[in-house]
Amino acid sequence: MLMINKLLPHGTPLAPVLLKRATSVALDWDTRAKSRFDATDSSGRHLGVFLPRGTVVRGGDVLVAEDGSLVRVEAAPQALLEVRHCSEHGSPFDLLRAAYHLGNRHVQLALQPDRLLLERDHVLAEMLARMHLIVREVEAAFEPEAGAYGEVHRHGHGPGHHDHDHDHDHDHGHGKHEHHERDEHLGHEHAHGHDDHDHGEHRHGPGCKH
User: Fold this and answer.
1) What pTM value is reported for the model?
2) Which of 44, 79, 125, 195 is the most buried (most CB within 10 A)?
3) CA distance linking residue 45 with residue 155, whole number of Å
4) How far apart are CA 47 and CA 152, in angstroms?
């Protein structure tokens, strides 16, 4: 096993030629949120990653092995929910409102200008569908927000975020909580199938009458 105990955020300050020579490793968020884990890189080497406590690995970071070799980290596509506002019967404010409610439930979110991404949770999907939002299942890289206080040395968690430094055989999920709260003002769910969606059910909230 090749041991790794150093990380360079975004590969800084490595020259592009060195990054091109580096092997790569694709990791989902659950793995990258831990500071200690095992992985196999693109050349087949077995890696034992042992980073400082609280470290979070992001796509584009570079791991430095004990022999000086470099491993470029890629954020692996994973099962997510994509949330968008309904442009015909809703408004962008609906997406802001959804982010507020999800934040109150301590759900990890990737924020983008026109959509939210979160790990799949059927209870949350139903809640969002009642909020004039379009919800569908996608496979995509997940890079949730680090929080208002950033990450410790660019890698820490914000307040309220649980420590994820666990043994390798501890399978610890992130953000996959069962939320059974219901906002009384939320309406009813309507499911619609659409040909241009490759990942199953596409849901609209009460304002979407199509």
Assistant:
1) 0.71
2) 125
3) 25
4) 24
Query: How many whole angstroms separate alpha carbon 123 and alpha carbon 184?
Result: 15
Tell which residue, 207, 174, 173, 165, has the closest CA to residue 189: 207
Yes or no: say if 140 and 78 are a contact pair by the CB < 8 Å rule.
Answer: yes
Whole-angstrom distance, CA of residue 152 vs CA of residue 190: 42
Q: What are phi and psi of 177, to 5 degrees?
A: -90, 155
* Whether 113 and 200 share a structural domain: yes
CA–CA gap between residue 205 and residue 175 (Å, rounded) = 23
Tokens of 42: 């693109």
Residue 172 vs residues 32, 82, 128, 163, 167: alpha-carbon distances, Å: 12, 22, 25, 11, 10
The CATH number of whichever domain residue 94 belongs to comes to 3.30.70.790
CA 94 vs. chain centroid, Å, equals 21
Are 67 and 109 members of one domain? no
Using the 3D structure, point to which of 75, 106, 122 is the last residue of a domain: 75
pLDDT of 34 over the 90 cut? yes
Tens-digit pLDDT profile for residues 169-194: 444 444 444 444 444 444 433 333 33
